[in-house]
Write a structure and sequence with these properties.
Layout (H helix, E strand, L loop, with lengths): L10 E3 L16 H4 L10 E3 L1 H4 L4 H17 L2 E5 L7 E3 L1 H5 L3 H5 L11 E3 L12 H10 L5 E5 L20 H26 L17 E7 L2 E2 H4 L7 E4 L5 E6 L6 E3 L6 E3 L7 E5 L1 H6 L9 E3 L6 E2 L2 E8 L6 E2 L17 E2 H12 L2
Length: 357
């Protein structure tokens, strides 16, 4: 079971005992259900069945479920112990450090994308116009702080770590968690390849350099009336930039997902023992928009004061020099490519440069 418990000395993702989640059975298809807000659902998929499959047909069945979830919703819940036990998160402990200590680790370069981001510095949005984002940021900045971590042995950029004495075990824990999430990314992308009628290893050499971003997030308490003011949210409506995002919520939750068919927002409530996984912009471009990169804000729309909460997002990216162009199985004479080729670095660095002040 995957449990995220904020505001204790150690926050543990634990799977020490088997945790079984029965996959619901529905009389209607996902495509039928998501056409209405009253029946909208994010599919729950046992990913252990993919890892344990002994035939290509068995793998393909799970792969089709995952791809169908990304086609119809853009999000899935994955269960099946996809995160190793004993992974310890010191995220809440890091954010309790003094402002002076955290400021010493400040984010300063969109190419590096590493370091601490104070409350109000970021403004996520679907816009790619830096001037428009600056206006939005001044009017309604995102009410969260974050810590950004990349792969450790990058030839150019270094992570910004607190001293070991400040948060004991923080660095080693995050590096282990980063590697574990990378391995999950590889396996899920294998299933997506199969579901898109590609060889299972199609993406392997395009995602093997670990050009990912591990983001620790802390949301301070805030009055609900402020969140409901014009344009304000924990994090404004946005899509993610890479291939997949692995999201680990605490019990408070707060994630909402836009129903792509009605354009209304629906809660993606935490389910113990699962990871929320969503498709990002580059996977949508690769698939020629067959797979959806769905809008999602973080709201926490409870009355009065919203509680403080923690979450962790692992933004999975292709290799930065990978060329992202529509896949051959996702285009045809009647459905030509919608996007020109570009590299991962061109897209992500451009989006990051516009997002931060």
């Amino acid at each position: 079971m995957l449990v995220l418990r904020p505001f204790i000395r150690q926050v543990v993702f634990r799977a020490a005992r088997p945790h079984f989640i029965a996959t619901p059975r529905y009389s209607s298809t996902l495509a039928e259900d998501v056409r209405s807000d009253s029946t909208f659902r994010i599919p729950l998929i046992d990913f252990a069945a993919y890892k344990q499959a002994t035939s290509l047909a068995d793998k393909r069945r799970i792969a089709d479920d995952i791809v169908n979830g990304f086609k119809e919703v853009g999000f899935v819940y994955l269960t099946g112990h996809v995160i190793e036990p004993e992974t310890v998160n010191h995220s809440a402990e890091f954010f309790r450090l003094s402002e002076e200590t955290k400021a010493r680790l400040a984010w300063d370069d969109p190419k590096a994308n590493r370091g601490y981001v104070q409350v109000g510095r970021e403004r996520v949005t679907t816009s790619m116009d830096a001037a428009e984002i600056a206006v939005l940021r001044a009017k309604a900045p995102d009410t969260k702080e974050s810590m950004e971590i990349g792969r450790e042995n990058h030839p150019t950029f270094s992570n910004k770590w607190p001293q070991e004495s400040e948060v004991p075990g923080f660095k080693q824990t995050m590096l282990h968690f980063f590697q574990t999430c990378h391995e999950v990314h590889i396996m899920v992308m294998k299933s997506i390849a199969l579901g898109l009628d590609l060889p299972e290893d199609f993406f392997d050499n395009k995602i093997d350099r670990q050009d990912h971003n591990l983001r620790l997030l802390s949301y301070p308490p805030i009055r609900t009336s402020l969140l409901r003011s014009d344009g304000q949210a924990r994090a404004a409506s946005h899509t993610d930039y890479g291939t997949l995002t692995l999201l680990f919520q605490d019990s408070i939750g707060g994630l909402e997902v836009q129903n792509p068919h009605t354009k209304h927002y629906q809660p993606a409530s935490p389910i113990p023992g699962t990871i929320v996984v969503n498709a990002g912009d580059l996977l949508a471009r690769w698939s020629n928009d067959i797979l959806r990169s769905t809008l999602h804000p973080k709201i926490n729309a409870t009355e009065g004061m919203t509680p403080a909460r923690q979450s962790i997002a692992f933004f999975c990216n292709p290799n930065f020099d990978a060329i992202i162009e529509s896949l051959p199985t996702c285009t045809s004479t009647s459905n030509p490519s919608r996007y020109p080729p570009l590299t991962t670095e061109q897209y992500i660095v451009g989006r990051l440069a516009a997002t931060y002040s």
